């Protein structure tokens, strides 16, 4: 896999830049923050916490399989969490990784660990992150079904990137449910 190659991104749905011009400056700032979203949320949320929803093996969504260059019938490790300020869910995050890659490239991932993955991904010098890509999730996208039980105060815009370690890619998709408190350094 060559994660630096833009051809790994399905061109039909996800874009390398945020296209919606009618977003608020705060929404745009949060969606495009290039650093650890976990660290950014910790900086502004008095009661930041991660609520682990599910870890399981499952089949990837079709667009995830295309991006990871695996079969839709190949099992992946899936982790879904809410990043919250107290009890208020701010971000729904879904991370997937081909099961076959977990023991070799990602041995420090613990399926029961409720800590944010950002603590691992942005502190391990061996992890390279590809640029963010964005998508307004259509009603038929399977991720929308996963979001159905949470209040969605914003347009269903998602961002995702690959985190590559030892040639193995972990896909992280984040969807903001509501805007976190205002950041002090908007760009």
Characterization of this structure:
20% of the residues lie in helices and 30% in strands. With 187 residues, the chain is α+β, with helices and mostly antiparallel strands. It has one domain (6-176): Chorismate lyase, CATH 3.40.1410.10. Strand 6 and strand 7 form a beta hairpin. It is globular and about 40 Å long.
List the helices and strands and how they pair.
Layout: H1 25-32, H2 37-44, E1 48-58, H3 62-68, E2 76-85, E3 88-98, H4 102-105, H5 118-121, E4 128-129, E5 133-136, H6 142-147, E6 157-165, E7 168-176
Antiparallel strand pairs: 1-2, 2-3, 3-7, 4-6, 5-6, 6-7
Class based on secondary structure composition and strand pairing: alpha+beta
What is the N-to-C succession of helices and strands?
HHEHEEHHEEHEE
CATH topology: Chorismate lyase
Distance between the termini: 32 Å
Main sheet makeup = 7 strands, antiparallel
Which regions contain 5 or more consecutive residues with pLDDT less than 50? Answer: 1-12
- Number of helical elements: 6
- How many domains make up the 3D coordinates? 1
Provide the gyration radius in Å.
16 Å
Judging from the principal axes of the Cα atoms, what is the shape?
globular
| Helix proportion range | 10-25%
Strand content: 25-35%
Which CATH class is shown? Alpha Beta
The overall average pLDDT, rounded, is: 83
CATH architecture annotation: 3-Layer(aba) Sandwich
For the record, what is the CATH homologous superfamily label? Chorismate lyase-like
Number of strands: 7
């Amino acid at each position: 896999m060559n994660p630096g190659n833009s051809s790994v991104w399905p061109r039909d749905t996800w874009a390398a830049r945020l296209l919606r011009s009618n977003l608020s400056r705060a929404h745009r700032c949060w969606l495009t923050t290039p650093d650890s979203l976990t660290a950014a949320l910790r900086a502004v949320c008095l009661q930041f916490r991660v609520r682990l929803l599910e870890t399981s093996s499952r089949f990837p969504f079709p667009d995830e399989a295309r991006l990871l260059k695996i079969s839709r019938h190949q099992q992946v490790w899936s982790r879904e969490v809410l990043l919250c300020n107290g009890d208020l869910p701010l971000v729904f995050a879904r991370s997937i990784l081909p099961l076959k890659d977990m023991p070799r490239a990602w041995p420090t991932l613990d399926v029961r660990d409720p800590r944010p993955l950002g603590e691992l991904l942005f502190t391990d010098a061996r992890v390279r992150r590809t640029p963010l890509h964005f998508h307004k999730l259509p009603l038929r996208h399977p991720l929308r079904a996963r979001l159905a039980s949470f209040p969605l105060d914003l347009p269903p815009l998602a961002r995702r990137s690959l985190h590559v370690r030892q040639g193995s890619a972990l896909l992280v998709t984040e969807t903001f449910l509501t805007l976190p408190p205002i950041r002090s350094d908007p760009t």
